[in-house]
């Protein structure tokens, strides 16, 4: 009689394709050494990649995720067990999913119209049916169902200017096709957000005062506070918008609710992905959906909500973090150690403000900003291009860096098998420790 694996890594290992299918390796930058003046400085950690990363044509390779592997383990890859044992080292299936969602976020930048002479300036250049094909992702396996617009309600200091509240395109909602749903093992509802582009969005980013979210009218939770600028981007309304009306929040809740109802008899997941400011909106949306209970399936169970954040800042206070954890909102943060955006707001007063070796919180610590979720740490810097530390394309390139001199051989297959064995014993030790703590030993 077969016995189901008891831990995430055991389940992943049981469903992995043969090691020979690993045709390439991924270089993860993770160094704490000082940066050299003329090139990126980092320690390269080789991680094997299974076959199926959905990426633009120019970045396609033989490293793709095998359908049976992801279909039977997607809950763990999406954080069902908080990615324990899957981040250090980064599991190949998780790596493939992180890259895939990063590319889907990158589609927002590639489709954004930056020509001031265009009638679609700072909006999407393509229609919903053409966008993924137009940016080189025709095989992404998603159908875009709605474009999302935001109008931050901000003013310049001293009231010297009218509110900067023009509505701009910030992302899209998509749903997995039938074929992709079969590969993923569930119907995935995706919301993808770009980062900061317009002046009003930059102003919103610097509105660092904490404000109550109050998303649930029946239980406003005034202690749960988020950055007021991000909150403005998410909730501000604009009835004069060129392409749509209503707040970013109302657009998203309406469309996600419709898609959940349409696919209510299927296994589903809600994936929210964003870069920079977009990751903040993704986290606010995830919290909002869970707080309102909109992620409830037809049988009463919760539909998993996972946020993939790339170069994201802190969004709310410690109460916000704790509430997200309580609601089961899973967040995986890909963060470059040299990216200043990931350290804001709350550069000084943040989740690390504690005393006595970190055992006790300061009286004001709950008013400080705190990161949510699990971090995938990168470390890259280039002296000739300082802006690269926050660039989404560079983030993805660092995850996809493949050593030219490495080829999948029998010896590399043995290393893969050895790595899985280490993960299996690591998870066994974690479980044993939990049992001992539960017994008070």
Automatic annotation (TrEMBL):
Leader sequence segment: none
Gene3D superfamilies: alpha/beta hydrolase (3.40.50.1820)
Reaction(s) this enzyme catalyzes, per UniProt: a 1,2-diacyl-sn-glycero-3-phosphocholine + H2O = a 2-acyl-sn-glycero-3-phosphocholine + a fatty acid + H(+)
Compartment annotation: Plastid, Chloroplast
First-level EC class: hydrolase
Gene Ontology CC terms, in alphabetical order: chloroplast
Principal place of residence: plastid
Sorted UniProt keywords: Chloroplast, Hydrolase, Lipid degradation, Lipid metabolism, Plastid, Transit peptide
Domain of life (superkingdom): Eukaryota
Domain Fungal lipase-type: 191-347
Family the entry assigns: Belongs to the AB hydrolase superfamily. Lipase family.
Function according to Swiss-Prot or TrEMBL: Phospholipase that releases free fatty acids from phospholipids. Catalyzes the initial step of jasmonate (JA) biosynthesis. Required for the biosynthesis of endogenous JA in seedling, inflorescence and spikelets. Not essential for JA biosynthesis after wounding. Mediates spikelet development and specification of empty-glume identity. Functions in a high temperature-dependent manner to maintain floral developmental robustness under heat stress conditions. Functions by safeguarding the expression of several floral identity genes, such as MADS1, MADS6 and G1.
The name this protein goes by in its record: Phospholipase A1 EG1, chloroplastic/mitochondrial
Species name: Triticum aestivum
Organismal lineage: Eukaryota, Viridiplantae, Streptophyta, Embryophyta, Tracheophyta
């Amino acid at each position: 009689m077969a016995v189901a694996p008891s831990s995430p890594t055991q389940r992943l290992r049981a469903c992995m394709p043969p090691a020979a299918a690993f045709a390439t390796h991924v270089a993860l930058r993770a160094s704490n050494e000082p940066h050299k003046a003329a090139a990126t400085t980092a320690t390269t950690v080789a991680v094997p990649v299974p076959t199926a990363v959905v990426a633009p044509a120019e970045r396609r390779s033989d490293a793709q995720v095998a359908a049976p592997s992801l279909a039977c383990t997607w809950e763990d890859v999406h954080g069902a067990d908080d990615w324990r044992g899957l981040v250090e080292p980064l599991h190949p299936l998780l790596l493939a999913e992180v890259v895939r969602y990063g590319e889907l976020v990158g589609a927002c930048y590639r489709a954004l119209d930056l020509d001031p002479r265009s009638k679609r300036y700072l909006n999407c250049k393509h229609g919903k049916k053409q966008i993924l094909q137009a940016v080189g992702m025709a095989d992404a396996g998603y159908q875009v169902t709605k474009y999302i617009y935001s109008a931050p309600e901000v003013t310049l200091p001293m009231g010297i200017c009218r509110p900067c509240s023009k509505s701009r395109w910030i992302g899209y909602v998509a749903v997995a096709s039938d074929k992709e749903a079969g590969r993923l093992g569930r119907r995935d509802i995706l919301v993808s957000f770009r980062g900061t582009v317009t002046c009003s969005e930059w102003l919103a980013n610097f509105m660092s005062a904490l404000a109550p979210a109050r998303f649930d009218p029946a239980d406003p939770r005034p202690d749960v506070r988020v950055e007021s600028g991000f909150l403005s981007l998410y909730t501000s309304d604009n009835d004069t918008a060129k392409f749509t009306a209503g707040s970013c929040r109302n657009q998203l809740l309406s469309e996600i609710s419709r898609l959940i109802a349409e696919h209510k008899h299927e296994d589903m997941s809600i994936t929210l992905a964003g870069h920079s400011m977009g990751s903040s909106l993704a986290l606010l949306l995830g919290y909002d959906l869970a707080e309102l209970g909109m992620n409830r399936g037809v049988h009463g169970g919760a539909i998993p909500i996972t946020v993939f954040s790339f170069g994201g800042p802190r969004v709310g206070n410690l109460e916000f973090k704790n509430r997200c954890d309580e609601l089961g909102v899973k967040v995986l943060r890909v963060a470059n150690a040299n990216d200043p955006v990931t350290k804001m707001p709350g550069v000084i007063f943040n989740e690390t403000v504690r005393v006595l070796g970190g055992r006790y919180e300061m009286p004001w610590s709950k008013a400080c900003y705190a990161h949510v979720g699990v971090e995938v740490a990168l470390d890259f810097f280039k002296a000739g291009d300082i802006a690269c530390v926050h660039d989404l394309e560079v983030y993805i390139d660092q995850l996809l860096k493949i050593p030219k001199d490495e080829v999948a051989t029998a010896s590399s297959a043995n290393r893969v098998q050895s790595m899985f064995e280490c993960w299996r014993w690591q998870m066994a030790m974690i479980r044993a420790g939990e049992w001992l703590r539960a017994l008070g030993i």
